């Protein structure tokens, strides 16, 4: 299993950091590029949409998985 990679960013005016496996960062970077938005903007939108009881790291992992599942549905 890969070591976690930590990234720091500002969300709602507050600095925070998130540690994820490099594979998740790769998918999230691709999502931002596909949506033609900055990485920080992508994370901010995912943060705003997550249920309050779900940690940010978990929300980012789930978003990456959902993104990959959409790419592998029949007809895509």
UniProtKB/TrEMBL annotation:
Start and end residues of each Ribbon-helix-helix domain: 5-67
One Pfam family linked to the record: RHH_4
InterPro entries, sorted: RHH_dom (IPR027373), RHH_sf (IPR038268)
Source organism superkingdom: Bacteria
Entry protein name: Ribbon-helix-helix domain-containing protein
Species the sequence originates in: Gluconobacter kanchanaburiensis NBRC 103587
């Amino acid at each position: 299993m890969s070591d976690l990679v930590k990234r720091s960013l500002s969300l709602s005016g507050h600095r925070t950091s998130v540690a994820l496996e490099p594979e998740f960062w790769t998918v999230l970077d691709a999502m931002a590029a596909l949506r033609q938005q900055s990485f920080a903007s992508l994370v901010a939108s995912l943060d705003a949409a997550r249920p309050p009881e779900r940690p940010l790291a978990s929300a980012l992992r789930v978003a990456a998985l959902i993104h990959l599942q959409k790419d592998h549905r029949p007809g895509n």
